[in-house]
Amino acid sequence: MGRINFSQILTKYKQIGKGNVRLTQSTLLLTKPIVATVANYSFDVLETQTATLQGNEIRLNLNDEFIVSTMGVYIQASVVTTSTAAVVTTRGTSLFAYIPMETTNNLCSLNDIYNGNLQIAVNNIVYLDKWDTRKHESRPDMPYQQRSAAVTINNATQASTKFNKDGMFPVEPLLTLSGAKKNSISLNLAGAISSSAFTLTSDDGSTTAYTLDRIALVMRGLNAQNAASFQS
Q: CA 65, CA 177: separation in Å to the nearest integer?
């Protein structure tokens, strides 16, 4: 977000009596588990919605507002890497902006993640409607050994490092979520999708298992601290 937008937003807050607002570059990361019989998903936005809060999620504080400048729709995978040499297991998550079918055709069940649309409403006023998810699909060029894994997974197969940098798309006009208001974010897919998994084996015998089991919505922009409507 350009400096001029930063200054304009700060000025507007001051004009409505919110001179104590602090703007910082920030991110929201919202996720939902994939359910094989479900084609419509609603995302929880606030930190106080603890029943569904995941360890890697970044949600909105009740006192703040969030001004969205870019957004991405991803498939989130839980990742388990096991080293056979040292018998060490590590766990984490990865975000895919495409369905990595170069590894196995079983992942076709996830295709409809990029055949849907988003709607975002604040206090029942729709500010974003029929936002197609296809614009967030980003398939990086694969090295030859990855493409060959469509037939069989081999030790040369390695995950791409590009997927976690792509898939973001500008949101214009800017969209504001508020910790003091009802934020409704819904994703409507053409059909239900189901979770899937694949495992890659490296040359040293270590394995990395990917379980693609959540939808992730990434929003980047400005966090407006103390900007919620009940703040002075």
A: 6
Q: What is the pLDDT of residue 103?
A: 63
Model's pTM, two decimal places?
0.85
> Which segments of 21-96 does DSSP mark as H helices, in order?
none
- Residue boundaries of the structural domains of the chain: 27-61+70-219
- Alpha-carbon distances, residue 189 vs 25, 71, 88, 133, 232 (angstroms): 30, 17, 39, 9, 40
**CA 180 to chain centroid:** 23
The first and second tokens of residue 197, run together, are: 């998994």
Q: What is the pLDDT of residues 6-50, one digit of tens each?
A: 888 999 999 988 889 999 999 999 999 999 999 999 999 999 999
214 class by beta-carbon count within 10 Å (0-12 exposed, 13-18 middle, 19+ buried): buried
Q: What are the tokens at 42?
A: 């609603």
What number of other Cβ atoms are within 10 A of residue 57's Cβ? Answer: 17
